[in-house]
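Onboarding guide, step 5: your first structure request.
Type a short instruction followed by the sequence, for example:

Predict the 3D structure of this protein.
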Amino acid sequence: MPHALPDTLLRHGHRERLRGRLMQNPGALADYEILELLLAQTLVRKDTKPLAKDLLARFGSLRGVLDAKIPELLTVPGFGASLAGFWVLLRESMARYAESPLRKHEVLVSPEAVAAMARQRLAGKAHEEIWAAFVDAQNRLISWELVCTGSINASSIYPRDILERAILLKASGFMLVHNHPGGVTEASPADAEATARLLDSAKACDIRFIDHIIVSDQGWNSLFRAFQH
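The system replies with structure tokens like these:
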């Protein structure tokens, strides 16, 4: 009677077949299989299929898992500190990839481009952050940088700090973007008031305030578009 193969050999064989399918036709893999292989980069000796399925059940989709906040991920049994470190590295790589075309002046800066870049950069943040895209007269990116960090549901905009930075960079204009960790993209009264105050200050300095964008895992919203309506 043949002996049953050890679990380690079974896992190795399954993973190798999965990697073979990935190389032949990556688009054919199910979301849980992609996630399974990602988890296996850290959990080398463990069967990662159950954890992959648990994560998808908890967060609803592959994007939901990738965008999830680290404290939330850590509540899923089997997702430990080593995976948390890998997730931070993975998201940082994705964020820099998304930022690369703008940083290289390959495309002109637009609200849509900044929103896409910011959603990748701010995915999974448990607190609000304000970022600014400073541009030249042709709307090419000069600098993309963190302006300030706030709490879970609030952050402060200081016009003087932003405009001083724009002047130092010799920027013709700037776009502001911040995240709402709670998911909504509607501007709060405080958002609208701070934006109006900064718009007046920017006009006085002859610097273009192009847009203020709110991003979340649900999408993005332009405060200027809201002002126009």
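Each response can be followed by summary notes, for example: Residues 36 and 49 are 5 Å apart (CA to CA).
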